[in-house]
């Protein structure tokens, strides 16, 4: 997998999160997808702000995956965990079918990120999990300030 593919994938993941943000904050957006409005605006704003934060982090990470690839990699793991939990706890029975569609999208995006980022960066999974990414010259980004 090429670096450009991984960058585009991370940008797409950022847009995927941004679309959730738009649905949550657009009046009637949740109802359009068969989800009842939460009883408190807090439950509309909390997932919206989390989606906004993830979108921003993913977007900026896509600019320099060699340095920030750990963020979309971990985001991919979290996406897959969300999908598994959503299916195991049967969220769709309480929230609606839309959550199942989101979970399937997250499962696919998460899997692609976890598979493509290590290949694109020529790093192993362990190094990315532990944020031990190396730059082109073999140096370690974590110790860059100490040099």
Characterise this structure.
- Mean pLDDT is 88; it is low at 143-147.
- The chain is elongated and about 50 Å long.
- The protein has one domain (3-146).
- It has helices at 3-25, 29-32, 42-63, 65-68, 70-88, 91-95, 97-121, 125-129.
- It is mostly helical and 147 residues long.
- Helix 1 runs antiparallel to helix 7 (97-121).
Task: Spell out the blueprint of helices and strands.
Elements: H1 3-25, H2 29-32, H3 42-63, H4 65-68, H5 70-88, H6 91-95, H7 97-121, H8 125-129
Helix pairs in contact: 1-3, 1-7, 5-7
Compose a concise summary of this entry.
This protein is mainly α and 147 residues long. It has helices spanning 3-25, 29-32, 42-63, 65-68, 70-88, 91-95, 97-121, 125-129. It has 8 helices and no strands.
Task: Supply the key terms.
0% strand; 8 helices; single chain; 73% helix; 147 residues; mainly alpha
Could you say how many structural domains there are in total?
A: 1
> What value does the average pLDDT take?
88
pLDDT under 50 segments (min length 5)?
143-147
H/E series:
HHHHHHHH
Which descriptor suits the 3D outline?
elongated
How many alpha or pi helices?
8
Main sheet properties: none
Strand content: under 5%
Rg over CA atoms, rounded to whole Å, is 17 Å
Number of strands: 0
Please give the share of residues in helix.
over 70%
Structural class: mainly alpha
The oligomerization state is single chain
